[in-house]
Amino acid sequence: MSRAPDVDYSATSARPDWTSLPRALQESIAAALGAKVSAVARPVSSGFTGGFAARAELADGRRVFIKAAPAGQHAYDAYRREAEVVPELPASVHAPSIVATVQEHDWFAVASEWVDGRMPGDPWTAADFARVTAACEAMADALRPSPLAGLDSFTELVVEDITVPTEILAGDMPLPAGLQDWVPGVLPELADLTAAVPDVLVGDTATHSDLRPDNLLIDDAGTCWTVDWNWLTLGPRWVDWVGLLPLAQHHGIDTLTALTRSPLTADVPGDQLDCLIAAIAACMMRRADTPPPPGCTPALREHQRLSAWTALDWLAVRRGW
Protein backbone atom coordinates (compact mmCIF):
# COMPACT_ATOMS: atom_id res chain seq x y z
CA MET A 1 0.00 0.00 0.00
CA SER A 2 1.33 3.41 -0.98
CA ARG A 3 -0.83 5.47 1.37
CA ALA A 4 -2.79 5.22 4.58
CA PRO A 5 -6.28 3.71 4.37
CA ASP A 6 -9.30 5.99 4.43
CA VAL A 7 -11.74 5.48 7.31
CA ASP A 8 -15.15 7.14 7.51
CA TYR A 9 -15.66 7.23 11.28
CA SER A 10 -19.34 8.02 10.82
CA ALA A 11 -19.91 4.64 9.13
CA THR A 12 -17.96 1.95 10.97
CA SER A 13 -20.64 -0.15 12.67
CA ALA A 14 -23.75 -2.19 11.88
CA ARG A 15 -26.22 -2.00 14.76
CA PRO A 16 -29.66 -3.50 15.42
CA ASP A 17 -32.80 -1.38 15.20
CA TRP A 18 -34.96 -0.52 18.21
CA THR A 19 -37.69 -2.81 16.91
CA SER A 20 -35.34 -5.80 17.13
CA LEU A 21 -34.78 -5.38 20.88
CA PRO A 22 -36.79 -7.64 23.21
CA ARG A 23 -40.19 -6.17 24.04
CA ALA A 24 -39.57 -6.67 27.75
CA LEU A 25 -36.35 -4.66 27.48
CA GLN A 26 -38.13 -1.81 25.70
CA GLU A 27 -40.79 -1.73 28.42
CA SER A 28 -38.20 -1.80 31.20
CA ILE A 29 -36.31 1.09 29.59
CA ALA A 30 -39.49 3.16 29.43
CA ALA A 31 -40.28 2.34 33.06
CA ALA A 32 -36.76 3.33 34.18
CA LEU A 33 -37.03 6.60 32.26
CA GLY A 34 -40.48 7.34 33.67
CA ALA A 35 -41.93 8.07 30.25
CA LYS A 36 -42.98 6.23 27.12
CA VAL A 37 -40.43 6.05 24.30
CA SER A 38 -42.34 7.83 21.55
CA ALA A 39 -39.75 7.77 18.76
CA VAL A 40 -36.31 6.30 18.15
CA ALA A 41 -33.90 7.49 15.49
CA ARG A 42 -31.90 5.20 13.27
CA PRO A 43 -28.99 3.67 15.18
CA VAL A 44 -25.73 5.56 14.93
CA SER A 45 -23.22 4.00 12.57
CA SER A 46 -20.07 5.16 14.37
CA GLY A 47 -18.12 3.07 16.88
CA PHE A 48 -16.83 -0.47 16.62
CA THR A 49 -19.37 -2.66 18.40
CA GLY A 50 -22.68 -4.19 17.39
CA GLY A 51 -24.59 -2.91 20.38
CA PHE A 52 -27.76 -0.89 19.92
CA ALA A 53 -27.14 2.88 20.14
CA ALA A 54 -29.60 5.57 19.11
CA ARG A 55 -31.28 8.83 20.10
CA ALA A 56 -34.77 8.47 21.52
CA GLU A 57 -37.58 10.96 22.11
CA LEU A 58 -39.77 10.49 25.17
CA ALA A 59 -43.45 11.29 25.57
CA ASP A 60 -42.63 14.01 28.11
CA GLY A 61 -40.47 15.87 25.58
CA ARG A 62 -37.04 14.73 26.77
CA ARG A 63 -34.41 13.33 24.44
CA VAL A 64 -31.93 10.68 25.56
CA PHE A 65 -29.32 8.42 24.02
CA ILE A 66 -29.98 4.73 24.61
CA LYS A 67 -27.44 1.92 24.31
CA ALA A 68 -28.21 -1.77 24.86
CA ALA A 69 -26.50 -5.12 24.32
CA PRO A 70 -26.95 -8.77 25.28
CA ALA A 71 -24.60 -10.67 27.58
CA GLY A 72 -21.69 -12.22 25.74
CA GLN A 73 -21.20 -9.22 23.46
CA HIS A 74 -18.31 -6.82 24.11
CA ALA A 75 -20.76 -3.91 24.20
CA TYR A 76 -22.58 -5.48 27.18
CA ASP A 77 -19.55 -5.14 29.46
CA ALA A 78 -18.62 -1.78 27.92
CA TYR A 79 -22.05 -0.27 28.62
CA ARG A 80 -22.09 -1.60 32.17
CA ARG A 81 -18.64 -0.17 32.86
CA GLU A 82 -19.56 3.22 31.43
CA ALA A 83 -22.66 3.34 33.62
CA GLU A 84 -20.43 2.76 36.65
CA VAL A 85 -17.76 5.28 35.71
CA VAL A 86 -19.59 8.33 34.40
CA PRO A 87 -21.41 9.24 37.65
CA GLU A 88 -18.00 9.43 39.35
CA LEU A 89 -16.54 11.92 36.87
CA PRO A 90 -16.31 15.64 37.73
CA ALA A 91 -18.83 17.81 35.88
CA SER A 92 -15.98 19.72 34.24
CA VAL A 93 -15.13 16.63 32.20
CA HIS A 94 -18.29 17.12 30.09
CA ALA A 95 -19.36 13.49 29.81
CA PRO A 96 -23.09 13.02 29.08
CA SER A 97 -24.77 12.17 32.39
CA ILE A 98 -26.37 8.78 33.00
CA VAL A 99 -30.18 9.07 33.14
CA ALA A 100 -31.17 5.43 33.74
CA THR A 101 -29.90 1.86 33.57
CA VAL A 102 -31.77 -1.39 33.02
CA GLN A 103 -30.84 -5.03 33.58
CA GLU A 104 -33.46 -7.16 31.84
CA HIS A 105 -32.61 -10.87 31.94
CA ASP A 106 -29.43 -11.15 29.82
CA TRP A 107 -29.63 -7.60 28.40
CA PHE A 108 -28.20 -4.37 29.78
CA ALA A 109 -29.26 -0.90 28.69
CA VAL A 110 -28.09 2.56 29.65
CA ALA A 111 -29.73 5.87 28.79
CA SER A 112 -27.66 9.03 28.92
CA GLU A 113 -28.08 12.72 28.36
CA TRP A 114 -28.48 13.55 24.67
CA VAL A 115 -25.79 15.87 23.31
CA ASP A 116 -26.56 17.49 19.98
CA GLY A 117 -23.06 17.71 18.58
CA ARG A 118 -20.76 16.77 15.73
CA MET A 119 -17.65 14.66 15.55
CA PRO A 120 -14.36 16.56 15.10
CA GLY A 121 -11.41 15.21 13.16
CA ASP A 122 -13.12 14.39 9.87
CA PRO A 123 -10.67 15.77 8.93
CA TRP A 124 -9.05 17.69 11.77
CA THR A 125 -9.19 21.47 11.46
CA ALA A 126 -7.11 23.96 13.42
CA ALA A 127 -10.23 25.27 15.18
CA ASP A 128 -11.44 21.85 16.28
CA PHE A 129 -7.95 20.81 17.29
CA ALA A 130 -7.74 23.88 19.53
CA ARG A 131 -11.13 23.09 21.11
CA VAL A 132 -10.22 19.46 21.75
CA THR A 133 -6.79 20.39 23.08
CA ALA A 134 -8.35 22.80 25.59
CA ALA A 135 -10.84 20.11 26.63
CA CYS A 136 -8.08 17.54 27.12
CA GLU A 137 -6.07 19.97 29.23
CA ALA A 138 -9.09 20.74 31.42
CA MET A 139 -9.96 17.05 31.65
CA ALA A 140 -6.43 16.16 32.75
CA ASP A 141 -6.61 18.77 35.52
CA ALA A 142 -10.01 17.50 36.67
CA LEU A 143 -8.91 13.85 36.74
CA ARG A 144 -5.61 14.32 38.58
CA PRO A 145 -5.44 12.79 41.06
CA SER A 146 -7.98 10.22 39.96
CA PRO A 147 -11.41 10.68 41.56
CA LEU A 148 -12.04 6.96 41.00
CA ALA A 149 -10.43 4.24 43.09
CA GLY A 150 -9.24 0.85 41.94
CA LEU A 151 -8.38 1.67 38.33
CA ASP A 152 -6.01 -0.56 36.41
CA SER A 153 -2.90 1.13 35.03
CA PHE A 154 -2.65 2.13 31.38
CA THR A 155 0.23 -0.35 31.08
CA GLU A 156 -2.08 -3.19 32.11
CA LEU A 157 -4.42 -2.20 29.28
CA VAL A 158 -1.72 -2.52 26.62
CA VAL A 159 0.64 -5.07 28.19
CA GLU A 160 -0.35 -7.95 25.91
CA ASP A 161 0.11 -5.89 22.74
CA ILE A 162 3.32 -3.95 23.36
CA THR A 163 5.27 -7.14 22.61
CA VAL A 164 4.06 -7.13 18.98
CA PRO A 165 7.28 -5.66 17.48
CA THR A 166 9.36 -8.24 19.36
CA GLU A 167 7.05 -11.04 18.23
CA ILE A 168 7.37 -9.96 14.61
CA LEU A 169 11.16 -9.79 14.87
CA ALA A 170 11.22 -13.28 16.39
CA GLY A 171 9.03 -14.67 13.62
CA ASP A 172 6.21 -15.45 16.05
CA MET A 173 3.72 -13.34 14.10
CA PRO A 174 3.73 -11.85 10.61
CA LEU A 175 4.05 -8.16 9.88
CA PRO A 176 0.51 -6.94 9.13
CA ALA A 177 -0.26 -6.01 5.55
CA GLY A 178 -1.03 -2.45 4.53
CA LEU A 179 1.74 -0.60 6.37
CA GLN A 180 4.66 1.48 5.10
CA ASP A 181 7.33 -0.48 3.25
CA TRP A 182 10.04 0.84 5.62
CA VAL A 183 8.44 -0.62 8.76
CA PRO A 184 10.63 -3.79 8.89
CA GLY A 185 13.73 -1.63 9.25
CA VAL A 186 12.43 0.25 12.30
CA LEU A 187 11.02 -2.73 14.20
CA PRO A 188 14.08 -2.99 16.52
CA GLU A 189 13.69 0.64 17.63
CA LEU A 190 9.93 0.20 17.91
CA ALA A 191 10.53 -2.84 20.13
CA ASP A 192 12.86 -0.80 22.36
CA LEU A 193 10.26 1.94 22.74
CA THR A 194 7.46 -0.47 23.64
CA ALA A 195 9.71 -2.33 26.10
CA ALA A 196 10.01 0.93 28.07
CA VAL A 197 6.24 1.35 28.40
CA PRO A 198 5.90 -0.19 31.92
CA ASP A 199 8.46 2.28 33.28
CA VAL A 200 7.20 5.32 31.38
CA LEU A 201 3.41 5.22 31.16
CA VAL A 202 2.72 5.58 34.86
CA GLY A 203 0.85 8.36 36.61
CA ASP A 204 -1.97 9.35 38.94
CA THR A 205 -4.44 10.67 36.36
CA ALA A 206 -7.63 8.89 35.33
CA THR A 207 -7.40 8.65 31.56
CA HIS A 208 -10.13 7.86 29.03
CA SER A 209 -7.62 5.60 27.24
CA ASP A 210 -9.65 5.28 24.02
CA LEU A 211 -9.93 8.85 22.82
CA ARG A 212 -10.68 8.97 19.09
CA PRO A 213 -12.60 11.44 16.94
CA ASP A 214 -15.75 9.32 17.19
CA ASN A 215 -15.59 9.48 21.01
CA LEU A 216 -15.74 13.28 20.92
CA LEU A 217 -18.62 15.66 20.23
CA ILE A 218 -18.54 19.42 19.78
CA ASP A 219 -21.89 21.13 20.37
CA ASP A 220 -23.16 24.39 18.89
CA ALA A 221 -21.70 26.37 21.80
CA GLY A 222 -18.25 24.95 21.08
CA THR A 223 -18.18 22.71 24.16
CA CYS A 224 -16.26 19.48 23.65
CA TRP A 225 -17.94 16.38 25.13
CA THR A 226 -16.30 12.99 25.66
CA VAL A 227 -18.24 9.73 25.39
CA ASP A 228 -17.63 5.98 25.79
CA TRP A 229 -15.80 5.83 29.12
CA ASN A 230 -15.47 2.06 29.43
CA TRP A 231 -11.65 1.89 29.14
CA LEU A 232 -10.78 4.25 32.01
CA THR A 233 -7.27 3.60 33.39
CA LEU A 234 -4.60 5.31 35.48
CA GLY A 235 -1.66 6.90 33.68
CA PRO A 236 0.18 10.11 32.74
CA ARG A 237 -2.02 13.17 32.38
CA TRP A 238 -1.00 13.64 28.74
CA VAL A 239 -2.00 10.18 27.43
CA ASP A 240 -5.41 11.06 26.00
CA TRP A 241 -4.32 14.19 24.15
CA VAL A 242 -1.06 12.81 22.78
CA GLY A 243 -2.89 9.77 21.48
CA LEU A 244 -4.88 12.06 19.18
CA LEU A 245 -1.82 13.73 17.65
CA PRO A 246 -0.75 11.27 14.92
CA LEU A 247 -4.07 11.46 13.05
CA ALA A 248 -4.18 15.24 13.50
CA GLN A 249 -0.63 15.48 12.11
CA HIS A 250 -1.74 13.26 9.19
CA HIS A 251 -4.46 15.84 8.48
CA GLY A 252 -2.00 18.72 8.39
CA ILE A 253 -2.10 19.99 12.00
CA ASP A 254 1.30 21.07 13.35
CA THR A 255 1.23 18.81 16.39
CA LEU A 256 4.99 18.97 16.90
CA THR A 257 4.73 22.66 17.73
CA ALA A 258 1.61 22.00 19.80
CA LEU A 259 3.63 19.62 21.98
CA THR A 260 5.94 22.43 23.02
CA ARG A 261 3.07 24.79 23.88
CA SER A 262 0.65 22.62 25.79
CA PRO A 263 1.10 22.46 29.58
CA LEU A 264 0.41 18.75 29.28
CA THR A 265 3.63 18.03 27.41
CA ALA A 266 5.92 21.05 27.42
CA ASP A 267 8.16 19.50 30.06
CA VAL A 268 7.73 15.81 29.17
CA PRO A 269 10.81 14.09 27.68
CA GLY A 270 10.30 13.30 24.02
CA ASP A 271 11.14 9.61 24.42
CA GLN A 272 8.24 9.22 26.85
CA LEU A 273 5.80 10.63 24.32
CA ASP A 274 7.26 8.34 21.67
CA CYS A 275 6.75 5.33 23.96
CA LEU A 276 3.01 6.00 24.01
CA ILE A 277 2.76 6.34 20.23
CA ALA A 278 4.86 3.21 19.78
CA ALA A 279 2.48 1.37 22.12
CA ILE A 280 -0.49 2.55 20.06
CA ALA A 281 1.17 1.39 16.86
CA ALA A 282 1.89 -2.02 18.40
CA CYS A 283 -1.65 -2.43 19.72
CA MET A 284 -3.13 -1.57 16.34
CA MET A 285 -0.91 -4.09 14.58
CA ARG A 286 -2.26 -6.96 16.69
CA ARG A 287 -4.94 -8.96 14.80
CA ALA A 288 -5.00 -6.38 11.98
CA ASP A 289 -5.19 -9.15 9.36
CA THR A 290 -7.88 -11.25 11.07
CA PRO A 291 -11.65 -11.04 10.58
CA PRO A 292 -13.34 -8.56 12.94
CA PRO A 293 -15.13 -9.98 15.99
CA PRO A 294 -18.93 -10.46 15.94
CA GLY A 295 -20.80 -7.17 15.83
CA CYS A 296 -17.92 -5.28 14.23
CA THR A 297 -17.55 -4.31 10.59
CA PRO A 298 -14.33 -4.57 8.55
CA ALA A 299 -13.88 -0.85 9.30
CA LEU A 300 -12.38 -1.90 12.65
CA ARG A 301 -9.37 -3.38 10.89
CA GLU A 302 -9.06 -0.36 8.59
CA HIS A 303 -9.13 1.85 11.68
CA GLN A 304 -6.28 -0.24 13.10
CA ARG A 305 -4.23 0.14 9.94
CA LEU A 306 -4.86 3.89 9.79
CA SER A 307 -3.95 4.27 13.47
CA ALA A 308 -0.78 2.21 13.09
CA TRP A 309 0.18 4.03 9.88
CA THR A 310 -0.25 7.52 11.35
CA ALA A 311 1.51 6.54 14.59
CA LEU A 312 4.47 5.18 12.65
CA ASP A 313 4.59 8.28 10.43
CA TRP A 314 4.53 10.52 13.54
CA LEU A 315 7.42 8.58 15.03
CA ALA A 316 9.31 8.67 11.73
CA VAL A 317 9.25 12.47 11.70
CA ARG A 318 10.35 12.72 15.33
CA ARG A 319 13.03 10.00 15.19
CA GLY A 320 14.38 10.43 11.68
CA TRP A 321 13.23 7.08 10.34
Give the CATH superfamily of the largest domain. Answer: Aminoglycoside phosphotransferase (APH), C-terminal lobe
Largest sheet: 5 strands, antiparallel
* Backbone structural class: alpha+beta
Rg, Cα atoms, Å: 20 Å
Q: What would CATH call the class of the largest domain? A: Alpha Beta
Q: Low-confidence stretches at least 5 residues in length (pLDDT < 50)?
A: none
Number of helices: 11
The succession of helices and strands, N to C, reads HEEEHEEEHHHHHEEEEHHHH
Please give a handful of descriptors for the protein shown.
321 residues, alpha+beta, Phosphorylase Kinase, domain 1, Aminoglycoside 3'-phosphotransferase, Chain: A, domain 2, five-stranded antiparallel β-sheet, globular
Can you offer a commentary on this structure?
The chain is of the alpha+beta class and 321 residues long. It has two domains: 18-113, Phosphorylase Kinase, domain 1; 117-319, Aminoglycoside 3'-phosphotransferase, Chain: A, domain 2. It contains eleven helices and ten strands. The strands form three sheets. A five-stranded antiparallel β-sheet has the order 1-2-3-5-4. A three-stranded antiparallel β-sheet has the order 6-8-9, with helices on one face. A hairpin with a 2-residue loop joins strand 4 and strand 5 (107-113). The longest helix has 21 residues, at 299-319. It starts with 22 loop residues before the first helix and ends with a helix.
